[in-house]
């Protein structure tokens, strides 16, 4: 399979770097929270509350997804999107409808880079061979076999 010519076009590069910048911003905010308040908040988190330890795990998955996406766009982008969606549902489940906007604001810096990384992966994945190339390959392989058998 040959590489897609869109791999190095300007749009794909722009999408990739936009995802990286927004993702680093989100990770920076998450790290700031951990450094500033983590020692006080993390020991008090509970597994029984949706806004406790499960929310922290979802945030870690989303942040790690953005980092992983720098190397493996499909895996990292999927991790970031799944983590962000989990954050949304955990915040919504733990706080009710009045935290709907807060949940959206919390996930946007994580879901946007995840989606952009997935788009970049789709634009750069190898394209499958055309039907014509497959037929040509099949016939050229048969003629080589015929020549080998006849000689």
Helix fraction, binned, reads over 70%
Largest sheet: none
Shape, principal axes of CA atoms: elongated
Task: Give the termini separation.
Answer: 32 Å
Gyration radius, rounded: 23 Å
SS field, number of helical segments: 5
Query: Kindly state the mean pLDDT as a whole number?
Result: 82
Strand content: under 5%
Low-confidence stretches: none
Secondary-structure class: mainly alpha
Order of helices and strands: HHHHH
Number of domains: 1
Number of distinct beta strands:
0
List keywords for this structure.
elongated; 151 residues
Describe the structure.
77% of the residues lie in helices and 0% in strands. It contains 5 helices and no strands. The protein is an all-alpha fold and 151 residues long. The chain has one domain. Helix 2 packs parallel to helix 4 and helix 3 packs antiparallel against helix 4.
Summarize the SSE layout with pairings.
Layout: H1 10-41, H2 53-68, H3 73-95, H4 100-124, H5 131-150
Helix pairs in contact: 1-2, 1-4, 2-3, 2-4, 3-4
Short description:
The protein has 151 residues and is an all-alpha fold.
